[in-house]
Amino acid sequence: MKKIVMKFGGTSVATGENVRHVANIVSNTAKNGYGLVVVVSALEGVTDELFEAASQAQKAKQDYIQKFKQSILDRHVSVIRKAIKAKQINREIRKTIEGIIDELEKVLTGISYVGELTPKSRDYVLSFGERLSAPIVCGAIRDLKLQSQWFTGKDAGIVTDSNFGQADPLMNFTTHQLKERIEPLLGKHVIPVVSGYIAATQEGIVTTLGRGGSDYTATILAAALSVDEVWIWTDVDGLMTADPKTIPEARMLPELSYQEAAEMAIFGAKAMHPRALEPIIREKIPARIRNVFNPENPGTLISSDQTPKKTDAVKAVALIRDVAMINVGGAGMVGAPGSYARVLDVLSRSGVNVMMISAAVSEANISLVVRRNLLGRALSALEIAVLGKGLVSEVTSEDDVCVVAAMGAKMKGTLGVASRVFTAVANKGINIRMIAQGSSELNISFVVKEEDCVAVVRAIHEEFKLGKN
Ligand code: ASP
Ligand code: MG
Questions:
Q1: What is the per-residue DSSP string for 359-398?
Q2: pLDDT tens readout for residues 402-458
Q3: What global pTM score does this model have?
Q4: Using CA atoms, how far apart are residues 126 and 106, in angstroms rounded to an integer?
Q5: Which residue has a Cα nearest atom 2 of ligand 1?
Q6: Is the CB of residue 197 below 6 angstroms from any atom belonging to ligand 1?
Q7: Is the CB of 211 under 6 A from ligand 1?
């Protein structure tokens, strides 16, 4: 029996109709003789709402909690109504949901009394989105006369470290438990529905795997159960050569290597959690990105057998907006050991993540890219800690820039890729503000003014003939 883990994202389960559609996909695949494990995200938008509710509760807003409870209950009940026809299953799942939402109310009330929200208690609140969606999807599958059982990530046996908000699995222990609790169901034709995104520490305290973490749950399960493939059902046809909203000619990529897919995930292709590929790379399990609203489309296959072709030097172009560039300069940095470390240390201490960095051999300046909403914090931290202290004499910034990244595995070792990229940009009369290419040679990233960004992406897309011919 071929085994498959299927993950359905938030939009796939956004409404009652969508949940039924998901249940039909599950049922059709099961009828084709596959052994299935289903992983689900929270209903679209619910995790964001829970995030907000946790912050509001901390400010002790009792009536807010009551209103929130009612709205989250209404939303889920209306989904159940459309997704599950059989009266008895409908009633049973509704009761389950009400019980879970009562618990959520208690947690929020607890937070409001203590007036304190910790990463631990926030994860507990965030876990409710998937705790609510899993029973509903399970009920909808049973409604189609298949056997199904739902699990939280914790009950399924996914154990993580205690890095709340961004936990990582302890794979050996997790594998052991998943094999014990989930695997036997496949042989009995019971379809397990596991809530994505959430797990627990060894002590049983709820953790989350980071936003978008349901993909990670799916690949953890896939690796532990050594399945044949993971299917990530989402609302796009697959990974694309560029964002079709920016470049209408963008094309779906039928095949990608793990490295290329990982690179694209890191550059913000919404289709995949950046860490999700790790468990399946180790086990060489292929992943498929598929469109739940267009299931005839085979999607993007991500696997280890992709030998890059010569034409794959640049396979996709990503655009990252909402960034800012900081230039730190000073003759005092030249030949001074630890000067770069000092600058980066100041930023990390103030909670600013550096997305891109470039420093020339002159050592007299260093350029950094950060999220635009963190620019103010970054500048004030640098000003207080390093400016005018002998090391750095100048800190300037530009907040009207964006990052463009050209990606492709065959870039490595292919001559002339950078020159083609930069010539294409120069031919449009556009100036490049900063450049970085890591030694992995999987991407060339550079900064241009925001007003030029679409023209730049288009120029590279055309130069490497990425669109439909
Ligand atoms: N519901 C979680 C989130 O929004 C996890 C996921 O959707 O993958 O981040
Ligand atoms: Mg997601």
A1: E-TT-SEEEEEEEGGGHHHHHHHHHHHTBTSSSB-EEEEE
A2: 999 999 888 888 889 999 999 999 999 999 999 988 767 788 999 999 999 999 999
A3: 0.86
A4: 14
A5: 212
A6: yes
A7: yes
